[in-house]
């Protein structure tokens, strides 16, 4: 079977993510804008194979829920972790990390940015090919 | 690769929800347990046609993301709202409500309980057939 095709996209693709914060093509559909009541911002993100966002951190933390495909996630100082449909990643506040697709599969995830009263995101440097092409751990 | 069949289920069904809080069959797979760091609890809920939870409220609010099927959502004092795959519902803190499947379709949603430092859920009375069978608004 293929990961594209007759798939089950839940949300429209949304807008292209700025090349300032991303290498390759990625799209974000905002599902819940940040507000002072729920203190969460929720978006659906689609990464093309090879696409990944820059290193960054969330002052209030973030939860990623992979809904389609196979992606990469890396915390600073740890190996790249392969992430797949149905997996959930909890990212503590201020932990530096990046995420994206794997080289040969798209990846779609819902991103829940938590405790937004503490801030949403602080962007850092790009994820170079050297970093992206490291060996990845996964099942 | 091992994504099973042509299926669209993202998560396993999880455990049956207690009949104390629900009419009909519903299942919950806990994706993110509550903790003192992210202050969010995330679960995937599957309702069989006709199933619905009791009236309840969340002291910190909740976000519902419908990923499959057609469901019902009602806030106290408002008409029943039909909710569908790809729709998102924001529930402010302490607003009394219930949700479930529509009479003829299963409904699956991700439930993100927010600001859990304020509490998770307060359960109330059952949603009677009289309430459930009111006319529903939707598109």
Rg calc of chain A: 14 Å
Report the principal-axis shape of chain A: globular
Q: What can be said about the biggest beta sheet of chain A?
A: 9 strands, mixed
CATH architecture of chain A: Sandwich
**Count of individual beta strands of chain A:** 13
CATH topology of chain A: Jelly Rolls
Structural class based on helices, strands and sheet pairing of chain A: mainly beta
CATH top level assignment of chain A: Mainly Beta
Helix-strand pattern of chain A: EEEEEEEEEEEEHE
Approximate strand percentage of chain A: 35-45%
Description:
- 2 copies of one chain form a homodimer.
- The first copy, chain A, is 3% helix and 44% strand.
- With 139 residues, chain A is mainly β.
- Chain A has one domain: Jelly Rolls, CATH 2.60.120.10.
- In chain A, strands 1, 3, 4, 7, 8, 9, 10, 11 and 13 form a 9-stranded mixed β-sheet that branches. In chain A, strands 2-5 form a two-stranded antiparallel sheet. A two-stranded antiparallel sheet of chain A has the order 6-12.
- Chain A starts with 14 loop residues before the first strand and ends with a strand.
- Residues 1-6 of chain A have low confidence and may be disordered.
């Amino acid at each position: 079977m293929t990961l594209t095709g007759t798939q089950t996209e839940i949300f429209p693709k949304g807008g292209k993510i700025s090349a300032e914060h991303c290498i390759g093509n990625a799209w974000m559909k905002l599902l819940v804008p940040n507000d002072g009541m729920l203190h969460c911002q929720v978006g659906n993100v689609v990464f093309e194979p090879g696409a990944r966002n820059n290193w960054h951190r969330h002052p209030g933390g973030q939860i990623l829920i992979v809904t389609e495909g196979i992606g990469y996630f890396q915390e600073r100082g740890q190996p790249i972790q392969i992430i797949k449909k149905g997996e959930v990643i909890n990212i503590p506040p201020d932990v530096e990390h990046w995420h994206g697709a794997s080289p040969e599969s798209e990846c779609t995830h819902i991103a829940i940015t938590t405790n937004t009263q503490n801030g949403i995101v602080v962007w850092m440097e790009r994820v170079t090919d050297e970093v992206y092409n490291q060996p990845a751990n996964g099942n």
